[in-house]
Amino acid sequence: MKKIVLTLVVLIVVVTAIFIYKNNTNKQIQAKSFQSKSQQDTAIDSTFDRDTFEYFLSGLGEVELDSLQDKFIRFNSQRPADSQIDKVLFEQYINYKTYLQTLESNASSAEFGLEDLIALNDQLLAAQLKFFTAEQQKNLFAEENQLRMMTLKKLELQQATASEEEFNVLWQQELQLLPEEQQVAYKNAALMGSLVNTEGMDPQEQYLIRQELVGAEGAQRLAELDAKNEVFNTDVDIYLNERQALMTDDSLTMEALESAITELRKASFSSQQQRRIKALERINDVNTKS
């Protein structure tokens, strides 16, 4: 239970931080020779050091760790001198990630509460300082640590307050202590969570709640987006069925099959959707095999 909760807490906070702060549209480098097979249609993320580390480590499983480290070193050496990352830092990060697995595996199945979360947070902070200097810790984990601390503070206030109104007052006071950028980030994260909670609702009820959250114009745009996504999902289902039929056609050679699938993909979706479709194909193939 602890392992599951720790993983969820860390991942949710990290994903939130990435969603809010990260703008990687102008700092990505295409370099297929440094990538794993599944990464070939993506760009190496070089926005921040940690993003680069995570990108290369995402190939683990397809490629051995030694090979991933070699790819990173070759990629890093071709970057401008003032943009290169100390390769020792990558090794430290690998050791840190390995150590975190031992923390999770040692977690017991006892009832998990706020005190346990606080203890785990302390373990994470201690682990960071075990492998990194204080300055490195700040550069690599500042946003994640801040978000996790605020998550714990929120849980603490929820347990300590007697009503939703009292909690909201105290929580807003906590947010006011943050820099303005982080205040906006938390408000955006809360809004996104509220919008996600409307999924699966009756359309009329969903529209009314969305209207309260983002206004009538925003609710209308979301409804239009839902309709587009529904059409897209239908098109994807049709395409995957037709693609499967091609793949089970024994009369097609491998070359003819690849050509037929490419033509079907181009005929079914716009050029802007091609990368997304290829990703959905891989997910479908994995699910079909499992």
What do you see in this structure?
This protein has 290 residues and is mainly α. The chain folds into two domains: 179 residues, no CATH class; 87 residues, no CATH class. It is 73% helix and 1% strand. It contains eleven helices and two strands. The chain has a two-stranded antiparallel ribbon. The longest helix has 45 residues.
Produce the secondary structure layout.
Layout: H1 2-21, E1 28-29, E2 44-45, H2 49-57, H3 65-77, H4 87-105, H5 114-131, H6 134-160, H7 164-176, H8 180-196, H9 203-247, H10 254-268, H11 274-289
Antiparallel strand pairs: 1-2
Helix pairs in contact: 1-6, 4-5, 5-6, 6-7, 9-10
Distance between the termini: 25 Å
What's the helix count?
A: 11
Proportion of helical residues: over 70%
Radius of gyration: 23 Å
Q: Show unreliable segments.
A: 1-30
* Order of strands, widest sheet: 1-2
Which band does the percent of strand residues land in?
A: under 5%
Kindly name the structural category.
mainly alpha
What value does the average pLDDT take? 78
Structural features:
290 residues; mainly alpha
Outline of this structure?
Helix content is 73%, strand content 1%.
